[in-house]
Amino acid sequence: MRGSSPEPRAQGKTRSASLNPSPVALLAAGLGFLALLLPWLELKPSRIAVGESFGVWGWPSVWPWVLLTLWFGIALVRGHWRGLLLGMTLLVWGLLVGQGAAALLSNQPESARVSATAGFWLSLLALYVGYFAAYCESRGWAVLSAPLALTVLLLLGVFNLLGPVLEFQSWRNQFATELWRHLSLSSSAVILAIAVGVPLGVFAASSTRYGWVLGAMGFLQTIPSLALFGLLLPLLAGVSQAMHLEVALALLGVGVFAFRWLWALSGGLAVLLVLPLGLLALAIAGVWLNNLLGPDPLRIALLAPLQESGIRGIGAAPAVLALTLYALLPVVLNVYTGLRSVPEAVKDAGRGMGMSPAQLFWRVELPLALPLMLEGIRGAALLTIGITTVAALIGAGGLGYFVLRGAEGGAPDMVLLGAVPIIALALLVDLALRFAGGLLRRRVGT
Amino acid sequence: MIRFKSIVMRYGGFEALKGVSLEVPEGQLVTLLGPSGCGKTTLLRTVNRLIEPTEGTVFIGDRDVRGLDEVELRRGIGYVIQSIGLFPHMSVLENVVVVPRLLGWKKEKRETRAREMLALVGLEPPTFAGRYPRELSGGQAQRVGLARALAADPPVLLMDEPFGAVDPPTRERLQDEFQKLQSELRKTVLFVTHDLDEAVKISDRICLMSLGQVEQYDTPEALLRSPRTSFVQGFLGPSRTLLRLSRIPLSRLLEPPDGHHPSATIQHSVSAREAFSSLLANGLRSLGVTDDVGLLIGVVRLETLLAAASEEEP
Ligand SMILES: Nc1ncnc2c1ncn2[C@@H]1O[C@H](COP(=O)(O)OP(=O)(O)O)[C@@H](O)[C@H]1O
Ligand SMILES: [Mg+2]
Fold it and tell me: What is the spatial distance between Cα A252 and Cα A297, in angstroms, rounded to a whole number?
């Protein structure tokens, strides 16, 4: 409606037309060609044995030739056609993989496994790059052809003979649970990071004296995740055995009041004393939030040590706590930057026209900082989805469970069963939040 | 009326204002003029308490501004700044109604008022009401800034180099229009500028400042005729005579037509300065003067202009 004027849009069109052939599409096609030279599938007598590799030209089929032609097409055409061809390429690619796996597995014992190797992954990368090229050129219906092709392939079950899919089938129930855990762990952490990080960012931006907040967040980020778990484990274990839930809650209540009083006395002292309480609050809130959102039941045991309520040295408590601490930096930093980037003149005009500080914040500063804040939340979400993988190490579960088990057992297909959904999840969340950010940006007009 | 009483502003050891006393009469336009850094903005911002002076008192009417709630005070004062400070996430209409909204006006009344204001500053409401600040030219944005400041009909306007950021032709047009507007609205205006031409053109009185002090506070004519200190003389510079001509309406120097057909003509509504430039540009000694419809109503001669420029007023 109130988008950009027609002029720049027309300009954009001529620019993309002069980019024919587009370098990104050329790169995609190049990767596609290269992939055709490499082995695609590996046949192994069992899921952990070493196997033998096969290329696409080995089995008698026209699909490799079709694929070759399609990659040529993608490099040469442009606009909607590229999107459409990409969908077809994806379809042919999937059929080829399915056919190859079936051919390799015929006359093999039950325990035999087919896994994807270099050529498969490289052509997948080529498709991804190609999709990016098509997406840059046209946002119309043609872009939908690739997701559509993928859906068709999944419905046809062409990947059903591949190792990771077989792994999935034997772990189906556990997969659903771990996926759910992964989602609940990461969303709990992101929600808490927003709840804590936005006020912290506002605080940090409110005066140049509070720059140390950003420094502290940056320091947290530099601690390796395993080291952080290692630090939290004994701390939480000790506290959760010794402290009763009602004592913890009472302490937190007292802390809130004491903080205001201490803050007036000495800011540094207040922060030092309240920091451990804050961590305790985060641990409790994290576990409960995670249990509310996830598959594990919520337990609140009053008059009992914290561990009866699920707050322990291992499991969800240290996991959500550590993830929250990591997610804080992107949130705080972007809230800070967003608020700081509101032009001084705009704030001056608002004040000069008689806005109270609260009105200035809610009506001017916050709306203008919102797109950047959302960027921060996107960063935090992506980061968290990635490092939640490590949570499996301390018994909190999540998709990292498969990565860990697969790595221990030398079963690469099982590693993939964990890793591929994590990547897909990150891409999906990224896309959704980018989209939301785009809408917001158009509204705010920055 | 705005009255400053011995305003001192110190930043650490630095005195930005060194005891400024000044009175802006009701309904008049007073400019604070002076080189950059002389304290104009600082003085202006003490009026709506964006700056609290170290010493001294500011009165609006006969009330000490410190006795008023600062938010209420500001809502009653129009405020226009050089960088405009339009809210980028609000449409032109929403920008204009900010103060009426803060004052709790009804939506309908607000929007009617906003449309009136836009029309007043020369922006057709149907075209501009729905636009966003990024879709405006510098001149248009500055008009919106003015409409926004006028929206709640405040008796006092504070303007800090409001036309400083636009190109010279646009600036002159904005000055002309603002002058016309002010002659109807008769607000009490405190106007900051470092542009001598602008100050001479639009002011009822000029307060020339230097290093946090008032050098001379006078009507433009008096300032140009008799600079009181050497700083003032230096600031006005050699074009002082020419500037005096710009305060004299051409109609005052008109002589009846002398029968000759003039080789060039000029509109009667311009200033004597423009007539003088036209004479120089055309290499003539006299010009025909026409009325609004182009009828010859008299002539103006070079001698008259020169005499007017050097004349001591009685
Ligand atoms: N917040 C501040 N801290 C220190 N010095 C300031 C501050 N604001 C203004 N000044 C100084 O006060 C003097 C007057 O500033 P200002 O009123 O903005 O000048 P003008 O508007 O006439 O250009 C300048 O020398 C400026 O450096
Ligand atoms: Mg200034």
Answer: 24
CA distance B280 to B274: 10
CATH number of A172-237+311-444: 1.10.3720.10
What is the per-residue pLDDT for B93? 92
Residue labelled with tokens 């008689």 = A354
Would you state the pLDDT for residue A10? 41
Helices marked H in A38-79: 63-76
Task: Kindly report the protein residue whose alpha carbon is nearest to atom 14 of ligand 1.
Answer: B39
B81: left (phi over 0), alpha (psi -120 to 50) or beta: beta
Delineate the domains of chain B, giving CATH numbers in brackets: 2-242 (3.40.50.300), 248-310 (3.90.1280.20)
- What is the rounded distance in angstroms from the CA atom of residue A442 to the CA atom of residue B6? 49
pLDDT tens-place string over residues A185-224: 999 999 999 999 999 999 999 888 888 888 888 888 888 8
pLDDT tens digits, residue range A320-341?
999 999 999 999 999 999 999 9
Q: Give the H or E element holding residue B108.
A: helix B107-120
Which of A424, A384, A380, A422 has the alpha carbon at shortest distance from A401? Answer: A422
pTM for the complete prediction? 0.81
Most ligand 1 atoms within 8 A of CB, residue of B9, B11, B32 to mutate: B11
Backbone φ, ψ for residue B35 (5° rounding)? -65, 160
CA B71 to chain centre: 25
Residue A169 is encoded by which pair of tokens?
A: 């089938």
Q: Round to whole Å and give the CA distance between B243 and B239.
A: 6
Spans of all domains in chain A:
19-160, 172-237+311-444
d(CA A85, CA A164): 28
CA dist list (Å): B93 to A439, B48, B114, B118, B130: 22, 24, 6, 8, 6
Residue A12 is predicted with a pLDDT of: 42
A445–B contact, CB cutoff 8 A: yes
User: What are the structure tokens assigned to A347, written together?
Assistant: 């704030």
Compute the distance between CA of residue B207 and CA of residue B190 in angstroms, rounded to an integer.
Answer: 10
Q: Write down the residue that tokens 């002069």 correspond to.
A: A18
Give A21's pLDDT tier (boundaries 50, 70, 90).
Answer: low
Q: Which portions of chain B are predicted below pLDDT 70?
A: 311-314
* Set of chain B residues whose Cβ sits within 8 Å of the Cβ of A352: 48, 50, 74, 77, 79, 81, 158
Ligand 1 pocket member B12 (CB < 6 A): no
Would you state the structure tokens that stand for residue B273, as one six-digit string?
């300065």
**Which sign, positive or negative, has the C-alpha torsion B254, B255, B261, B264?**
negative
Evaluate whether A311 touches A287 at the Cβ level (below 8 Å). Answer: yes
Q: Is residue B82 in contact with ligand 1, taking CB distance under 6 Å?
A: no
Q: Which residue has the tokens 């007073």?
A: B30
Output A403 or A263, whichever has higher pLDDT.
A403
Give the rounded percent of residues in chain A with a pLDDT score beyond 90: 43
Q: Check A348 against B132: CB less than 8 A apart.
A: no
Helices and strands in chain A: count of H runs, count of E runs: 18, 3
> What integer pLDDT is reported at residue A61 of this predicted model?
83
- Structure tokens belonging to residue A124: 């997948």
The CATH classification number of A19-160 equals 1.20.140
Return d(Cα A66, Cα A96) in angstroms, integer.
Answer: 10
- CA–centroid distance for A50 within its chain: 32
Q: Please answer whether residues A428 and A385 qualify as being in contact, where contact means their C-beta atoms are separated by less than 8 angstroms.
A: no
The predicted-structure confidence for A268-311, as pLDDT tens digits, reads as follows: 888 888 888 889 999 999 999 999 998 988 888 888 888 888 88
Is B83 within 8 Å of chain A by CB? Answer: yes
What residues contact B158, with CB distance under 8 A and at least 6 apart?
A: A352, B44, B45, B47, B48, B77, B78, B79, B80, B189, B190
CA distance A364 to B222: 45
Report the length, in residues, of chain A: 446
d(CA A99, CA A160): 11
